Records
---
Amino acid sequence: MLTFLLRRVTEIVPLLAVISIMLFCVLQLPPGGPETIYANDPAVTAEDIARIKGNLGLDRPLPLQYLSWLRQLVLLDLGTSYREHRPVLRIVSERIWPTTKLMLAAFAFAIIGATLIGLYTAIHPRAKSRWTVNAATMLGISLPTFWTGLMVQLVLAAWLNVIPAGGMYNIGEPFSVLDRLHHLLAPAVILGSVYLAAWSRYIHSSFLNVFQEDYIRTARAKGMPEPSVIMKHALVNGLLPIITILGLEVPRLFTGAMVTEVVFAWPGMGRLVTDSLLARDYPVAMGILIIMAVMVVLGNLVADILYAVVDPRIRI
Amino acid sequence: MKRWIGTRLSRRELLLGTAAAVGTTMMTPRIGNSATPKAGGQLIIGSIQETNSLFPMFMGLNVGKALAGTIFDSLVKIDDKGDYIPCLAKEVPTIENGGISRDGLTYTLHLRDDVKWHDGRPLTSADVRFTYEMIMNKENNIVTRAGWSEVETVTTPNPTSVTIRLKHPHSPFVFFLVGEYGYVVPKHLLDGKTLNTADFHRKPVGTGPFVFKEWVAGDHILLAKNPNYWMPGRPYLDSILYKIVPSTQGLLALAQQGGLQLREAMNYQDQETARSFHGYDVVSAPSYTYFLFWLNCAEPGLDDEIVRHALAYGLDKGTICKTILKGLVEPSWSPINPIHWAYSEPSRKDTYDPRKANAILDAAGWKRGADGVREKGGKRLAFAITNIAGDVERLQIVQVAQRGWDEIGIKATFRPVDAASHNPNMRAGTYQLAYGFWFEDYEMTMAAWTQDPNQWRYKSDNLQKAIQAATTTHDRAARKVAYRAIQEDLAEHLPAIYFFNRILFDLVSKRVQNYRPNPNGSWNYWNAHEWWLA
């Protein structure tokens, strides 16, 4: 295990370096720059823009700008936002918890729902309700979240007033778990339904395969009750593919979901990264994208380790 | 399904109301005139954008500049009727009251002596001088030094007097004592600090009617009443909650739930929907923002004035205004809004006339090629229209324009860009045709035209002389003559096709009293101290 970890770490560092250079270069490609936030003001002159660019170091050659950023990164400093004039780390730290909360709720909804649906359809492959379930999962995969989110907001918030239109809590009121959950419900379900639809199909296929295995046939032949067969033997093995998927989705706990956050006014990382890209706020964009890259790499590593833990046949 | 039945504002009423605003007041006031203001309550404002900072000189967005008007006071204000009113300065400096010297070079301001910062310290002239020095310090990433770059010295003879000496006469200078140009910041909190990254960006301290309380990034900004405001009995409101909702649908849904009392600058589709909301009014107000087609006069083909006029003759502004813009606006012919004193109707208006467009192009030797596109001397009249992507209304307008120009032998293709790169394209001159909005400041300094090169790459000595004349004398009659010359020059040589003046639609709860929007949208909260909830 130790050798495996050391090998992976030596691979990760140069990989992240290459990713950071590519990200830095790609961010420079779109026209305009951080000073564009001021370009709409007729009073802002070319001299004002040149002064701002100079102060921000944007008139230096790109390799020098990259090296400055890298020097700060080594010291675990993601730099200062051009737009908000404060440390990127502070900006990111304000948005991470709302995002993590939303994504954890969405994942929990998706995992539980997908397991129940996938298991049910695998146990009852010929049930008539399977068609309804299949249609629902296809809709869940096909319908874009911006549409479902807007429809839910229009009907349940604007027309029926049973859910809040957006936000994380009722501002100015004392802390209430119920209030927090009330605000979390719609965005988490909308976001989670996409994952639920896709994951239920993985789980369904996985369980179908597991039910064909010799150890399941043996357990049944020994007279074990079916619920025990499923819970003791089939469940963990049937969920193995989801472990891989969850490992790949770990970065989303921190990167959020832009569309859902915009529709439900959720102040998360998804909106932050989009706003920073549109405003050409390079330090914030680079900071978040590098965090995402690290999360993806670490997520894959965690998935590999978890596989070995769950399945003793796998040696690392 | 519930259907909300609320007040409706018909198009006819809207246009008549807007027309009545011309030459009289700036807008139909939202005032409960006969009622006695009630103290208390929280006003919730919904906004699609979040300001980047609450440090006035570092703000890049109008939403921030407007909000700053609740936390900070400026030396002078402009009300909704377009009149200068005193604020931190006891009176608006004029030549008549001696606040401006006869040669127009020296401005003397007498500050109120009863103003305190939110931390209790008194405001003095030293704060004004500090603010000026901070703006002029090259190390500070101040957005603009507009107005203050005309200043030679700022002296403070005593704690309540400020003397500003200009390098040369500049009649619009009083305008730079207003709003985002004229806010004063506290020397005792900022002197010696690194202002580019100071906490002041997120925790401002001003002298305004509201005190900053809380800013949850991406969610809301909360302001509380300033109990020690220098205007007795003001503000009426206990607090203002500025809620950030980054989608128009979300804002409409929040309004339908009664979750906000004010939402500014709705787009034209949303204002139609919002008219049916129970408990709300749609308030319209003119603005100094206008939509136009930029014509890059340095571009081959567009450097020919005949071609520019042909483009104007080929653009059916009237039909676009009636259809896509739902009859809510009328075509315009000048960068100056007719509600402004400096407006003069241009003697030349290139109204839609494709036959005339074809005739003048033919006469000038622009012949149609095999593909129908006109050419002359190796130049082809084929241009790309730069336009902000994702806006349906703008796309529809550009599509209609494209069709009209196609009929007169001018080929136009689309070049969609994101919002962040649109105006930089204009400044850099990296466009051929472009569609979008621009605006002039209240004093019509025509700042964009005086930059060299300007966005239109248009050179005219007559224009520069007229702008110089308009911004040097304090004689309004003489200024009006100069502005007429400016508008005639622009209409004659057409570096831009002016399209329409934007009308702003604000969704206002019927409970909100005394909301009086300003044609300069960044000062919409100029009288926030007088807002109250019925």
Note: The radius of gyration of chain A is 24 Å.
---
Amino acid sequence: MTARPIQGFGRTLSIILAWLSAPPCLAGDLTITVRDVGGQPLAEAVVYALPPAGLPPPPPRQHAIMDQLDKTFVPHVLAVQAGATVDFPNNDTINHHVYSFSPAKTFQLKLFKNDPRKHAVHFDKAGVVTLGCNIHDWMLGYVFVAPTPYHAVTNGRGQATLSLPDNASYTLKLWHPRANENLEALTRTVAVPADRTAELRLGTALKPKRQLQRALPGYED
Amino acid sequence: MTHRLRTQIFVFFLALLLVVMGGVLFMVYRATESHTEALIAERLETGFSVVRHELETRARYVGGTAGTITKDFNLIEQVVSRDALSIGATLLSYRGRVGADFVLASDLDGKLIGGTLAMLTPGKPIDLGVRFTDDSDQSHGTLVSHNGQAYQVFIWPLFAPEPNQVAWLITGFALDDALAARLHKLTGLDVSLLHRNQVLASSLNEAQRQELHHRLRTVETGHSRLRLHDRDFVLYNQALDTVTGPAITVLLQRSLTEALSEYQMLHLQLIAIQLGSLALAAIGAFFIANTVSHPLSRMSEYVKRIAQGEYSEPPPLPEKGEIGVLAKEFANMQRQIADREAANRHLAYHDALTDLPNRNAFQASLKETIEHVGAQVGHLAVLVMDIDYFKDINDTLGHVTGDTLLKQFAQRLEAVRRPQDQIARLGGDQFAVLVPALEIEAAAILAQHYREAWQQPFAIEGFNLSLNAKLGIAVYPEHGENAVTLLQRAEVAMYVSKKQKKPYTFYDTRLDHNSVLRLALMSELRSAIDRQELTLHYQPKLDIARGEILGVECLVRWRHPVHGFIPPDDFIALAEQTGNIRYLTQWVLRTALGQIKTWREQGWALKTAVNISAVDLSDPQFSNQVEALLTEFALSADVLVLEITESAVMEDAQRAVQLLTQLQGMGVRLSIDDYGTGYSSMAQLKRLPVHELKIDKSFVLDVISNPDDAIIVRSTIELGHNMGLTLVAEGVENAQSLDLLRTLGCDIAQGYYLSKPLPAAAFEQWLATAPYPPRTDDTRSYA
């Protein structure tokens, strides 16, 4: 009960920071709506656009944050550009032992509570990094390392906006942790500024949410 | 015969016992066997549950343990690192924790990362036949064969974290004899794990295992029996349905033979007991059989003797029990039979009313006395007596009184009976005395002696009745040499006494003809009619005033081929007694009417008179018969005169009147015969519908010489005339009588003076030359 305002705060903070860290430039906004196979808006989907030729130079080092709050990874899905660094602050009240054995990044962090260090991890390879906690089996999080600076995670309404430089066409791709199909098939090309919106729709139902049992009810801290 | 009974009982009991015992033994054996088998079957099923539970428990345990191991961070770290050696070492230690026979880790494609099985190469696919699929349920395990050994293999996904699977963990448990041995220890049964007709593991010994292997094809699912290695086994074969993939079946078995051997002792004891009881029963049966058959055989002997009429004392018989009761009843029966025989004998030989010996007894006794005594003694006598007028007494006083009288008579006889004499009632009112030794001179005295019996009056119903009886005496050997003859002749003598009104008469051979004749004639009369041995003789009747023959009286004559001429006195009475009189009367009527018709056709207007008896009077058909005959001969009724004696009429006056009235109504003339000798009264005479009276010849014969008779005749004639009757005098034997009768006014005369009865032809001749002519017309007939 007491964690919720903190969680909400944390989230808001992350969003604000993310927004703040976005470079101001002339960009066309492409609002992408992602829907599942039933037509429902799909949250926590990573949409990213690959520019046509080469990538812009690596961005300045930005720190994304993958927090642990209330024995949960916050956010559940974090999208960063390859080469970015992600902080694991652990604002939870307890210790966590975060790890990943994903080929994109294998690491483990013993994150004690009240540890002021940021525990930054550098993700230089594109790919999906699955996060778990050794102590809490149910904790599951994703860091999607995109090969492009143009990436976003859809919100609760299934929408995400990409600021793309004008006058180019981009290859739009999608990723969702529970996608049960070959997502390459959903790759689209979008032209900016001509296309202001795009809609991506999954063709297959998602894998079920595998929620491991948390601590027993009544044992909430 | 009784031996057969005894043997039968004995054999029967024995056979029954044998059957029963055999049955019991058989059933006990069957029961124990099926019970044992059932118990074993139950135990096998329980065993199966145990085995299944054991394997499932292991799976769960493995699952539990594996669940923990698969979350082991170090393991995951090592597996991810792909360090085969380290992994192998780690898994080796985990193998111990889990209790598995091998533990392997493979990547998501099934290639070995590391493990405890040395022969597998890291990086190569694990060729165990395990399917690496994302099955949600890991509790089953898979059956796998590797290196000639069967394993139960479980696979567990390694997550980092879930749902992010990074590897598979594979644990394998050998299904080997060790397991079978453990299961055997757990269940107490022989356990074999089978797969596709192969014995994977077994707790059986080598030899049994070999044989089982050969016989596997015959083993069905569920309960069955199998003979392995000279022992009967009860089997239970069931698949472990919790195992996916090719099935393992568990075969549990227990030796029935062994289990049954525990009952052997019981069976042997049972057999021993049964044989013992059989022996005892045999002895018992033998004794019982004896107890039953022995008295029965003696009793059957005894019964045989009874059947033969020997009512001797019964043989000594057991007092108690059913046999005793039976014996007592037999003795009873014997006594009762004897009593009944005696009673029957008594009845057969005694008269019921007087309790004197009856005719049979008397005759038998007489016979016996003749046989025993005859030669020595010289003479013996038979006396037969008949009470006078007993019939009248009976009619007057009633049969009850008559019986009482007879009883008293018998008592009187008994009272005067001499000890050596025997008395008997022959029947009716006839009694007899047997005098076994007699001087013939004493016979008359003897008769007198017995007459004492009825000298005193008899007290009956408050008044005194005097009886008289007549005796007939026959003496052995003069009057007969056998019992029948003597008795008969005594009876004849008795009848003579009656007739001659003598107190006693000795038999005389002269009487022989008569009596013997009488007996014979009784049966011959009827046939005599048929053989025409009878003829009618006709005696003329004279109309005195006119001097004409006005009619005839018909009289029957019998000329017997052997005995010659038989007087009517003899046979008419007989005929009346036997009832033959009817035929006789019919014949007489027919003949008479036929003859008179002939004569009338010749011009003689004669009437014909026929004698009828009381018997005819009592025949209701008589008048019809007369009418029929008259019609047949076409004669008018007044041609016929029927003569009835006064006494015959008085026998049953009422009936006589009835019939006579009928006849009179027809126009037949009626005449009272032998008038003056019967018991009629004036009043009765007045009522009789008759036309004439015939004065009895006893009055007419001496009418000249006897003034009393003359008076009677004169009175009768006057009386008759005053009553409007015609008078006929019978027995006119001379002219003087005829003249006197004429003087007295008699109407008709009949007698030897005119003619004796003559046959038809002779009569005609006589009439032709008679001093009196026949009447020639009817107009001047008498009323």
Note: The longest strand of chain A covers residues 27-35.
